[in-house]
Every structure is written in C-alpha cells, then in structure tokens.
Design brief:
Aldehyde Dehydrogenase, Chain A, domain 2, binds nicotinamide-adenine-dinucleotide, Aldehyde Dehydrogenase, Chain A, domain 1, alpha/beta, Ald_DH_N
C-alpha cells in the first residue's frame, strides 16, 4: 500500500499539514521561529516515517542559543512567579481549549513526525488537555502556604511555603512528541518556573506547534524557551544549566543525566525505560482482556514506555486466551496516512526498525516460536513492522529482558498468581504493569506485590496514565521522581520553612540554666506525647 498524506476528515479548521503547509516554507519558518536558533545554525531535514519523504527543513540551535535561551528565561522568571496563581491557571485553561479545538493540526503533526496511528496520536491530545486542566485547577491548593506545628505549642509559628526552583530544563524524547514535550512544562510553569525545553528533533514540529498554542493562550514567550538539537550536545547543555532537571528517555542516558545533576547538586526527575508485564489471571474476562491486551501491547507500535512486552497467562485460560489474542493481533489494520480507521502505524526510524528486527531474529535463532507477525512491511511504510507475538522465549534471548520498544511481545504460561508476580518482578525495570481479573481485590493484592510505579487493573496503561491526580513514574531502573499528582508539581518547587518565635526563645528559656532547662523540656515533651501533640 502506498502511503498518502491525504487530507483528514476532521470537521475542525484545516490543519497546516493537511492543507500542505508543512511543506510551505512560511508555515515552517513561523513555527520554527518559536525556537531560539541563531545565524548560521545547522539545519535539520524533517522526513516523515509515513512515506520517507522530506517535509520540512528546520534550523537547529547552537550552544550560544542555549545560553541565550537561559538568559531570557532567567530574566523573565521572577515576574512570572510574581503573577497571581489564578492568572497562570487561566492561561493553562485557555491552552486546554486551544489544544482540543486545533486537534486536527496536532494529530497531523504527531502522525507525520512519529508515524503512529491517528487514534494513538489522539491519546497525546487528550493527555495534554487533561494535565493542563488538572494543574490549572489544583496547583493553588497544592502549593498554598501551610501552617505547621511548632516545636512547642504556641511559641513557634511555622509556615511551610513552596517557591519555584527557577529555570527548569526539559529534554523530551520522540515517541510521544506532544505529551512528553508539554506535560512536564505545564506544572513547572504553573509553579512559577521558567522552562527551557529541548524536544527531540524527531518530534520538534509538534512541540513547536504546541508551544505556539501555549503562547496564543497567553503564556509570555520569554518564560518558555525552546532550543532544538541533538541530545549529547544541545540536550546536555540544557540540563547542565537547569535549576531542576527533567528528563525522559532510556535508562542508560538517564544514568548519565543523573550523574551530571548529582555533580551539580540539583534535583532531577528521570522517566526512563520499562519491561512491562500484563497478567491474565484465571478469572479474567477474556472478552475484555483480549482487546485490552492487544491495545496495551501494540499502541504506538509498542514505542510507548508503559506498553506491554511480556504477556503472562494463567494456565487455566492459556490456550483460549492465546488463540484469541493471536487472532486479534493478526487482524490489526496497518496504515500510514493521516486518517482515522487503522490500528497500527509505523516505527519512527530505520534505527528502531533495525532494533525490532534484531530482537525478533535473535529470538527466532535461539528457538522462539512466532505466533503472529514477525516481518517488516515496507509496502505499508519504510519502517513499518507487523505486530508480533512470540512464544518459547527464554533468558538466552535479548527480548526476554531488554526493552524492545517496538511491536513485539513474548507470551508466558504460569500456574499461579505468585508465579506471575515473580515473572513480572524479574526485571531491572519497574515502570508499569497490568492485571486482568474479575476480582478487583485480588487485582489489588497482586498489584501490591508488583514493583512498578503504576499498575492498571482491567486496563493496559491508559487508566493509570490518564488518572493524573495520582503520580506516575518508575521504580528500580525505570527512574526517579514522578509526574502527575501532587508530586508532579511539588518537584518543581523548593519547600521553605519560615518559623517565627514568640514570647520566649527556644532555649534556654525562663531564666533557667542548661540543666534545668533540659529537665523542663524533657517534662514538656512527655506531656506533649501524653496529650497526643504531633
Ligand atoms: P535515549 O535515551 O537515547 O534518548 C532520549 C532523549 O535524550 C533523546 O531526545 C536524546 O536526544 C536525548 N539525549 C541523549 N543523550 C543525552 C544527554 N547526554 N543529555 C541530555 N539528553 C540526551 O532514548 P530513546 O531511545 O530516544 O527513547 C526511548 C526510551 O525512552 C525508551 O527507553 C523509553 O522507555 C523511554 N521513555 C520513557 C518514558 C517514561 O515516561 N518513563 C516515556 C517515553 C520514553
């Protein structure tokens, strides 16, 4: 099938890409003008994985541009932090509306740059809107100054307040070019920080379009600076200057980023890789578990940190589940155009295709059985690969323990919940898990024994991801820190304890000498415990 960049069927205003504007120098120049790029900067040719065609040429940033971006962001941050929280919230709520109204543009761009199916591109639009609304509505409550108990009742008046870190540096990857470039920036900004963002070059048009929408919603240009370029130089330079480091990417790169942040003694949140399991328990409703597992394994062609790569099935339902899962996987509709109505898009790049092909070839050479898929599909798109189900995968095979980050899953049979838990935990990673059971209490018990930052019961990944009032992130080698929930905004602040002492000093008091003061305080502490003081 030859891919076409056909006009989408959305009824909303025509998008720049679908009406051909991505190829229009003016449109690209305007959007790219949203980044800090200097004279004589290198240029990057954006090619779409949908067809392999070049669709735009974008100037990149230099190290001097990174410096300039930080200078502007630093100068603008105090005034931004001084603005009332309600004004910042208004901007996020306006952005929410712009994103939903202009979704055809964003969907086109996400598809064009990532190659994913339109329905999965929509996940990113929904995510951005949900996160914008959430922090607009909750930040004032989360960040409000709080009175705390003093050392001794009545004598110390304590207020804990939250102050912004300053300038937050964000490096985001290519796989969710809209979500991951913007949803960390939103709480950082809401908390009064300025941000310097370096989106991946493979998703930069999407990020730039979203930043343009945020500015249209009222965000001062200075407080969100965008620079463009590779990870090792421009990405590292962004993080090296940040008052707080926010990185999403692979575990090996995350370790390097953590080392550099540790050296400078600045905080960091690192959202890293995963090797995620989905367990189908003996009492699972297979009518829900089969389509749910297929979505969880093959969304965004498996290029999703929280998607499933291990499917673990209780032996009592194994044969039934596997037959239906393989049939549903084989029936997935592949596609490569800017329309709704297909399930599986393309991988993003030749590198990804090589990695996925190598994992499957290695497994097959060592005795794995291919139950579905297993082939590249250049007839669909240059880097397309079939949804692939493997059985008989052993520890000798790369795909047993390494993250494939593609549409390849291995299926395992277990005899008990305990065996399933042990297999789900038998990995260096700890990002996401999924449990399918009719008994939610049993699901919660199993979840409690799995060492991952999120566990979805009767869903693959979207339930916990979309429930942004609660934190998500990785345990073990899947990262440090959390996005979403209170933790997702508190990380961008420093706490400050301001305590005013009244009437008498803390020590020594009442004209007592040291020894008598210690005796009096000891008595007071005993009384405080007895009366239930905190
Ligand atoms: P990667 O680590 O190679 O690159 C990630 C990003 O970091 C890229 O944009 C790259 O340009 C940049 N980078 C590279 N070296 C850098 C450095 N020294 N300093 C600063 N930035 C640098 O990962 P990848 O293969 O491009 O992305 C896929 C990985 O990301 C997978 O492991 C996936 O699981 C993970 N991921 C995790 C989450 C999460 O929320 N936990 C989300 C998406 C992706």
């Amino acid at each position: 099938m030859t891919a076409t960049l056909s006009r989408p069927t959305d009824s909303a205003p025509a998008s720049p890409v679908s009406s051909g504007l991505a190829r229009d120098r003016q449109w690209v120049a305007r959007v790219a003008g949203g980044a800090v790029t200097g004279e004589g900067a290198p240029r990057h040719t954006v090619c779409t994985p949908l067809t392999g065609e070049a669709v735009a040429e974008v100037p990149l940033s230099t190290l001097a541009d990174v410096e300039a971006a930080y200078a502007v962001a630093r100068a603008a941050q105090p005034a931004w932090a001084a603005r009332p929280m309600a004004e910042r919230a208004e901007i996020l709520l306006a952005f929410h509306d712009v994103v939903l109204t202009r979704q055809p543009t964003l969907l086109d761009l996400v598809q064009l740059e990532s190659g994913k199916a339109r329905g999965q591109a929509f996940e990113e639009v929904a995510d951005v809107a949900i996160v914008a609304r959430h922090y607009a509505r909750t930040a004032a409550r989360t960040l409000r100054p709080r009175r705390r108990s003093g050392a001794l009742p009545g004598l110390s008046q304590v207020v804990e307040s939250r102050i912004p870190k300053g300038v937050v540096g964000i490096v985001s990857p290519w796989n969710y070019p809209l979500s991951l470039s913007i949803t960390d920036a939103l709480p950082a900004l809401m908390a009064g920080n300025a941000v310097v963002l370096r989106p991946d070059v493979l998703g930069m048009l999407t990020a730039l379009a979203a930043v343009e929408m945020l500015r249209e919603a009222g965000l001062p240009r200075e407080v969100l600076q965008v620079v463009l370029g590779d990870g090792a130089t421009i990405g590292a330079a962004v993080l090296d200057r940040a008052d707080y480091v926010c990185f999403t990417g692979s575990t090996p790169t995350g370790r390097r980023v953590a080392q550099a942040a540790g050296e400078r003694l600045v905080g960091a949140s690192l959202e890293l890789g995963g090797k995620n399991s989905l367990y189908v328990a003996a009492d699972a409703d297979l009518n829900r578990a089969v389509p749910g597992a297929v979505r969880s394994c093959f969304s965004s062609a498996g290029q999703l940190c929280i998607s499933t790569e291990r499917v673990i099935v209780h032996e009592s339902v194994y044969d039934d589940f596997v037959a239906r899962f393989v049939a549903a996987t084989t029936a997935l509709r592949m596609g490569s155009n800017l329309t709704w109505g297909y399930d599986l898009g393309s991988l993003i790049s030749a590198d990804q295709l090589d990695r996925v092909g190598a994992h499957v070839a290695d497994a097959v050479a060592k005795g794995a059985t291919v139950l579905a898929g297993g082939r590249a599909r250049p007839d669909i798109a240059p880097f397309a690969y079939e949804a692939t189900v493997l059985a008989d995968v052993t520890a000798a095979m790369t795909c047993r323990d390494e993250e494939t980050f593609g549409p390849v899953v291995a299926i395992y049979r277990v005899a008990s919940d305990e065996e399933a838990i042990a297999l789900a935990n038998d990995t260096a990673y700890g990002l996401n898990a999924s449990v399918w059971t009719r008994d939610i209490s049993r699901g919660r018990r199993i979840a409690g024994a799995i060492r991952t930052g999120t566990v979805n019961i009767n869903e693959g990944y979207a339930a916990a991801w979309g429930s942004v009032a609660a934190p998500m992130g990785g345990m073990k080698a899947s990262g440090i820190g959390r996005r979403h929930g209170e933790e997702g905004i508190l990380r961008f602040t420093e706490s400050q304890n301001v305590t005013a002492q009244r009437l008498v000093p803390i020590a020594p008091a009442f004209g007592l000498d040291d020894r008598r003061f210690a005796a009096a305080l000891t008595t007071s502490l005993r009384v405080l415990k007895a009366v239930g003081w905190q």
